[in-house]
Amino acid sequence: MRNSYTAACIHELVANNVHFGWVGGVSAGASHLVNFLSRDADRSRDAFVEFGAHPNTGGLRSLVRGNGFFNAEYIYEVAGNHDSDLPFDYQTFAADRTPFRISAFRADTGDTVYWGREDVSSMPSLMRKVRASSTLPGLMPVPFIDDIPYVDGALGTSGGIVTEAAESDGFTRFLVLCTRGRDFYRKPPRSPRLIRRWFREYPHVAEAMITRHERYNAARDHLKELEREGRALVFYPTNMRVENRERNLKKLQQSYEDGRKQTHDEWPQWMEFLGN
Question: Which are the contacts of 173, defined by CB distance < 8 A and separation ≥ 6?
Fold first, then answer.
């Protein structure tokens, strides 16, 4: 869970009462989005640290039972209830009028979808979309919204970096939180044929997985262009020690602390950028 590192960024932003004119999230970043807009600093940490290591959230046993390596139904549609393991403050979220976009990928057509506040009417409606955006093909069951199958929004046109949606909505300056280092670029997958065979029910998903590196790398290059123009401040982790499937509590705690230290070190730069 690399987002255990950037969870420290969300915690610091909320704790310091920082607000934005627009917020976007894709994949696990959609959870950061809802935690930020519900102004819950502690939940931003717990979601990717203690809760991330909770036995109910997944593992090999969950995968064998058909619930996915990450038990998405429990994580997104059960745990946030007021009497469950990770309560979500939907009232505060709904009261915040900040425009947002959550991205997902239509598994049946290959279209990229962006949901906003106008598409959310309740906590179940919101969390179903967060789940859809975060669904890793092959590791989590495909969720349906209005009979339409969705998977990880990072497979879409953004490549997993949603500045395209912010620019489309008219914004020109961005704070971007990445979970990969500055020099990271994706490589083409080794076995396209195997991917096509595995996802033969959803050929658009297979093709998006095979070509994702092209969109991701282009988005990375665009980020660096925005940086050079002074229009983006990008947080690149400098000490990332975990991968997406990590569920060991001590490692997640260390990842969060690494992110907290880097956020603290770079905070003056953030405030200078955001103040201009």
Answer: 231, 232
